[in-house]
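hey m, so remember when u said the tokens were messed up on ur end? i reran from scratch. heres the input so u can diff it against urs
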Amino acid sequence: MTTDAVREEPCVDIVFDESGHVATILIDRQRKLNALTLAILDDVASACQTIDASSARVVLIRTGGTRVFSVGADINHFAGLGAAEMWRTWVRTGHRALTALEQLRQPTIAVVDGLAYGGGLELALAADFRILSSRSTLCFPETGLGTVPGWGGSARLADLVGRHRAKDMILTRRVLSASEALDWGIASRVSATEDPESEVSSLLESLLYGAPLAVQMAKQLVTSAQSGNSNNVLEALAAAAAATSDDLAEGIAAFREKRPPSFHDR
């Protein structure tokens, strides 16, 4: 993974289970409460590329330690940025990383144990599912710092809870408990204890039981319906259907043999 002079320790790793079916993106920067930097965001985007090309069927997003999922963006890494650099690098890098996570073909689960604030909450919102321990809390504190959520969190939150509740959280910096997050529809599941692993295992079992291609296509169908952009799904399904046809094989053979094709599929 990428390293730089600012980073105190290796922060992002990809771990596959023995079957290769479960991939984990681990962000481990415990000394800084898993605060996010540009290098970490770049590594998350690279991890998504690696996982997309793998045989993984489910992806977990975890962070190091307990009680803190992530305090969000590292203030020391953006405090001195000017307007152009904030726009050109900081925000766009965050968008690229979280969009890569959101667009993974595999279903993704953010395992949130403890507080998830600001950019840490935005990271969790980019996943398909969020499993919270009972001690977890969620908050967007940005307006108290004189800024706003910058990595797509406002839109993703509004999609989940509606505009009014999104405004309540973002404008007032409201802190949600795990049970409130479940009631609002942000959390997919909340463990009855401070250990979320039983809920993680249960959801993994359900996702792995389904046919992998069907699960992945179903995810894409729901995502496209939400965004109103169905063309990408239609193109993918049409190309998949064409790939199994005799006509495609004939067309390729005719191209290679420099002759007119003879199509027969109806």
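this time it looks ok to me. Residues 1-7 have pLDDT under 50 and may be disordered. if urs says something different then somethings off w ur setup not the seq
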